[in-house]
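Batch job 17 of 40 flagged for manual review because the log was empty.
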Amino acid sequence: MKKLACLLVILLSVPGLAGAADETLRLMDVRTDLSDKASLQRGAKYFVNYCLGCHSLKYLRYQRLGQDLDIPDELVEKYLIWDGSKISSPMTSAMRLEDADNWLGAIPMDLTLAIRRHSGGGLRVGRGADWVYTYLNTFYRDDKTPTGVNNLVIPNASMPHVLWRLQGIPEPVYARAEDDGSAKQRKVVGVKIPEGGGALSEAEYHRMTRDIVNFLVYASEPIQSARKALGLPVLLFLIVFLAIIYLLKQEYWKDVH
């Protein structure tokens, strides 16, 4: 048992296995709100339009989404299901895996648990949300890559900037490394949003990506709002029950003392 416990500690301490995000990167603060149904509805629409073509949410069904976000089944079928799937089906991409591998050089990951994957072991959901939000907001022009863009969060990622028509293509902001006796190398430390480069203003684009992240936080655990709402009544019940048990114990033991 001791060997098994040591092995588990070692495995959980490895960043890649524990799902820890890059601690050296300063993440943007997204401040998600699962009580904002309008944001979640917009996020579902944006995800279906811009993300579902490659990425699946295989642990979330269309019908559950509609029930949680107050979207009638007929509207879910009309506006969110484009591949002929049934409303009881999980949200899977229509792209074949072999096509994705050939076109993109990698198979796009399922995003149902993307927030928890980058939240530090699944315990800090807010950090996972900040990680995904920062990723969506830090693409920049890089003519040396096959997609023509790069990303501060995942350098040389195979994913193109699918939202470039809305944001435009940001330009990289460089900082020079310390002189080590050779030519100074430039390092990208930020991005500069082009004015009028996309269909949305900078504020509108930030709101859109926040809605997408908010929706992904919901998708990572659809029951979490109900769970959190139930938590306070349960704690209050336990406190009251503890007081009753204490008084009952005092009543039973008063004759003994």
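Reviewer: the log was empty due to a logging misconfiguration, but the result itself is present. DSSP finds eleven helices and six strands in the chain. Unflagging and moving on to job 18.
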